[in-house]
């Protein structure tokens, strides 16, 4: 979806760089690595630029964490349209998982043309192509993760990371491609 339209519909600022994190209960699930975002943002070099963190999958806690940048909690999103608007409004999807298989959020972000910054673990290298569709930081290296956020924001337009992400998701994860893979498995 169009970024401007998506931000208008969600009442989000147009000129702010939006970092996105989302997981059902992910802020309290150790495996999703939410605390690593906070640690990485302490090292983040782009704070002077207009940056905001969007979080979906959770409502605003009574005592919110301090990230050094504004945070907007989107709550639980139950439908595909809302998710499309949130992904499409974002500049970078953050997936700081300590443990993950093939997270839907990475595939969904790519399908919406959003580059992903993640740790090089589990199934994430199958989704994110380093410096082509996002950035794969060394496992659990928060300085490299912060570097990846900066790099992705600085290079997204120039290197067409979002466009590459969308193309890659269609080539590898579209319904027709998945069906082909299942048929191949059944035939074998």
Mean pLDDT: 92
Shape: globular
Radius of gyration: 16 Å
Strand order of the largest sheet: 3-2-1-4-5-6
Q: What are the secondary-structure elements, in order, as H or E?
A: HEHEEHEHEHEHHH
Detailed description of the structure:
This protein has 188 residues and is an alpha/beta fold. 44% of the residues lie in helices and 15% in strands. The protein is built from 8 helices and 6 strands; from the N terminus they run αβαββαβαβαβααα. It has helices spanning 3-10, 34-42, 80-89, 104-111, 124-127, 142-159, 161-173, 175-187; strands spanning 17-22, 51-56, 71-75, 92-95, 116-119, 134-137. It has a 6-stranded parallel β-sheet, with helices on both faces. α1 crosses α3 and α7 (161-173) packs parallel to α8 (175-187). The longest helix has 18 residues, at 142-159. The protein is globular and about 55 Å long. 38% of the residues are buried.
